[in-house]
Amino acid sequence: MSDPLPGDDELNRLHREKMARRQAARRKVLATKTEERGLLIVHTGAGKGKTTAAFGMVLRCLGHGMRVGIVQFVKGAWHTGERDVLARFPQLVTCRAMGEGFTWDTQDRARDIAAAHAAWDVAQAMIADPSYRLVLLDELNIVLRYGYLPVADVIGALKAKPRDLHVVVTGRNAPPELIQMADLVTEMTLVKHPFRAGVKAQQGIEF
Description:
This protein is of the alpha/beta class. It contains eight helices and six strands.
């Protein structure tokens, strides 16, 4: 004859004991995590959400009164809702949209390279400015993939960033060197996208 099933009181007791053990283990692990420093964070992959997640961190920084610098390497030609919102916080956010669209939009490689270098100059100035706590380099991976900026120069500058500064880099096809040196790397995986079903980019979702 099988043992009777435990009642709600017994299930609740077992659950409390299990969670207490898990809490104790978690606290033990957390007690070993004592370092605090700026992180190099990379959002890459073919899936949607790389820039969206990065702007989530920007929003968190604003909530803590932290100053943020943003350089957009590709999306400058587009009007976006996030830039309109961030413009309401001029004391905390500097957003420089310096791209002119994707290379198939401009169809001018020399112009794209010049725009990438101008944006990188602004990015380096933000990285060197001690008033910023986080710098977002949006779609930097794209210009690196096309060879518009020397990967070695970008890696060198990011290695030399101030210790307390967080830097977030977004875009598909992050170079292996960047992934190797980053503290946190998230790859967005494409499972399904409405664009493939004929749905165009829409306000509030894509821009």
